[in-house]
Structures are given as C-alpha cells and as structure tokens.
Amino acid sequence: MDDLMVDFRIVLEKQGWVIERESGTAYFYNFTPWVAPKAYLHVVFKGAAAAALTEVDDILHLPRDWREELSQQNGAFLFSGALDVYGVHAPGALLNRRDVFERLPISIVSENSSWAPKDSERLVVVGGYQFDGTLAVLDRNDGSVSAMPRRSKTVLIRWPDTDSWLTAEIERLSKLFDERGKITVSEEETLPGRQIL
C-alpha cells in the first residue's frame, strides 16, 4: 500500500490543532462550544472497513488511491465543516442518534446519488463545502479535483490531484481561523477560488 496522500492527523497537528477526544469512529480536534455544545473544529474519521469499501467500490468504482485513502481515514469534517471529505458507511450501518461522538462521515454514495453528472463514468464527488454546497469532484481519468457549484458544471478552481486539493485547502482554510478555532472572515471566504481581502 502506498503512503497516505494526505494524513489529516499529521497536517492538523503540525498546524497546532490538538486531539481532545477519541471515539470508536473518529478523532476530535479543538472543542468549539461557541459553535454548538458538543462541536469540534475538526473531526477525522478512522479508516473504513474492507467490506464497506468493497460495497462502495461496486457502486462508484473509486480510483485505487482514493480507496486506500479511505481505508486509512474515512473522511473528515474540517474547520467546522467548511470542508467535508466524504466517506463510506459499512453495509447496514445506522445513524447513531444517541451518541454524537460515534457519528459517521457524510456518505460518498448518498452525495453521488444526489448529484449525478452526465459523465458519472468519469466524475465522482469526494467532498464538499458547507457554505453553499460547492462540491469537490474527482476526475477518475486524470486524477484532478475540481470545485463546482452544486447546481452547475462550472469549474471554480481545479487542482491536479487529491493531494494538491487537500494540502492547498487545509492550508488556505487554516488562515481563516484564529488559534482557538474561531472564523475570522465571512463564511463565504471558506469557498475555494475566493480571494482573501
């Protein structure tokens, strides 16, 4: 198996964010009670089970490198959800409404079902931006990632690969939050392709 393209835990810890809680499904960084009583700035999900990856691959035909990424870290909510990286759910997995710390990532299957591009053989949604639903779309043919508004095929910005997308976006977003995890700009600035004034 190749090394992780981007290991969220290493990148976040290098930026000074601290794991404050661990559950059976995820690592939680920097408690942010001003967002919600049990909110954290970052949630990084533990690797997906092989059975879940196989089931999802039968549906979406994910590139090998992205399947390997999800086997090590099954998605994330970064910067209070400014950027969400979608993950897989185990066959038959149910939402645990009793314990918010045993949550699951946003389902990559569900997100792709609700956004079916004409060229779905080539494109797969792997993440999104909460502010307006802008999607991060992976091109299976060349490995590039494009940011596209949810109801449009317009490309706001394109990165050459998933590593470039995640590295650049985590770095960019880190500049929009203070050391406690409070956003310091308008939420619109969390969208890719926006210039920080």
Biggest beta sheet attributes = 9 strands, antiparallel
Our measurement of the CA-to-CA distance between the termini, rounded to an integer number of angstroms, reads: 42 Å
Overall helicity: 10-25%
* Strand residues, percent: 15-25%
CATH class: Alpha Beta
Q: What is the domain total for the residues?
A: 1
Mean pLDDT: 89
Count up the helices. 5
Global shape: globular
CATH superfamily: SMI1/KNR4-like
How many β strands by DSSP? 9
Task: Output the CATH topology.
Answer: SMI1/KNR4-like
- CATH architecture, by name, is 3-Layer(aba) Sandwich
Uncertain runs are none
Provide the spatial order of strands within the biggest beta sheet.
1-2-3-4-5-6-7-8-9
Q: What is the H/E string?
A: HEEEHHEEHEEEEH
Radius of gyration: 16 Å
Class based on secondary structure composition and strand pairing: alpha+beta
Description of the molecule:
By secondary structure, the chain is an alpha+beta fold. It has one domain (8-89, 103-177): SMI1/KNR4-like (3-Layer(aba) Sandwich). It is 24% helix and 22% strand. The protein contains five helices and nine strands; from the N terminus they run αβββααββαββββα. The chain has helices spanning 8-14, 50-60, 64-72, 108-114, 162-174; strands spanning 19-22, 26-31, 40-46, 73-78, 83-85, 123-128, 135-139, 145-148, 157-159. The protein has a nine-stranded antiparallel β-sheet with strand order 1-2-3-4-5-6-7-8-9. A hairpin with a 5-residue loop joins β7 and β8. The termini are far apart. The relative contact order is 0.15. The model has no long low-confidence stretch (mean pLDDT 89).
